[in-house]
Design a protein that fits this description.
The chain is an all-alpha fold. It has a domain at about 30-60. The protein has helices spanning about 5-25, 30-60. α1 (about 5-25) packs antiparallel against α2 (about 30-60).
Length: about 60
C-alpha cells in the first residue's frame, strides 16, 4: 500500500469520528453524562491523533 500522508489523515479522521459518535450515543444517559462522555471522547481523540502522527512519522518519513 502506498504510504501517503493524505490517506493516513483521512483514515485517522474517519476512525476518530466513528469513535466519537459511538462514545456519545447512549439513549439512557442524562445531559451531564453526555457532556462527560464528550470531554472523554475529545481527550481520547487528541491522544489518538498524537499517537497517529508519531507512528506515521516513524513509519513513512524515514
Amino acid at each position: 500500500m502506498e504510504c501517503t500522508f493524505e490517506k493516513k489523515v483521512h483514515f485517522f479522521v474517519f476512525k476518530a469520528t466513528i469513535f466519537r459518535i459511538c462514545s456519545l450515543i447512549d439513549r439512557n444517559s442524562s445531559k451531564k453524562h453526555l457532556e462527560e462522555n464528550f470531554k472523554l471522547a475529545k481527550n481520547r481523540i487528541e491522544e489518538l491523533r498524537k499517537r497517529f502522527m508519531t507512528f506515521f512519522q516513524l513509519k513513512c518519513f524515514q
